């Protein structure tokens, strides 16, 4: 069932929903990373750093593009999430030899930042979109996982791999749901009218 939209929300809706593919790409990338992390036999900290770094770069690029392509809309949280993802991914990808504790802290702070900014985004657009619950829930999940990882970094990257992998899969599913909601809204209101 579509959420009723007001006349003032329709232009915002059109701007947001036109870029549903970027959110879907982020969701698919997260799911792929999570499945790889679960399935990779003999995962080492070095392998985790490289795989997570590649994922964070891809996710950051998609988030940055989604935020930057929102001319006339206020998608600044995604620009910030994209920049944080790119920087964190580049550090993990190009400096995979950093200690496990540093890698865990990078992943934890990244997840916490992503979570906070996605909660802000969900609150900011709660009246204009039909998926604020999916984005808000993914943000809450990210923030919770980030806090757990930052609070218990001594658990080590390999012992946290199940948490990180499960988080990635759940996050990817929620982002994909949000994207599909936006696609449906875009199809219903392609020009915001």
How would you sum up this structure, described in words?
The protein is mostly helical and 193 residues long. It is built from 7 helices and no strands. It is elongated, with a radius of gyration of 17 Å. The chain crosses the membrane at residues 20-40, 46-66, 78-95, 101-121, 133-154, 160-182. Keywords: Membrane, Transmembrane, Transmembrane helix.
CATH architectural designation: Alpha Horseshoe
Radius of gyration: 17 Å
Q: Quick one: CATH class? A: Mainly Alpha
Class by alpha and beta content: mainly alpha
Measured distance between first and last alpha carbons? 18 Å
Largest sheet: none
- Coarse shape: elongated
Mean pLDDT: 78
Keywords: Membrane, Transmembrane, Transmembrane helix
Transmembrane segments: 20-40, 46-66, 78-95, 101-121, 133-154, 160-182
GO cellular component, one term: plasma membrane
Protein name: HdeD family acid-resistance protein
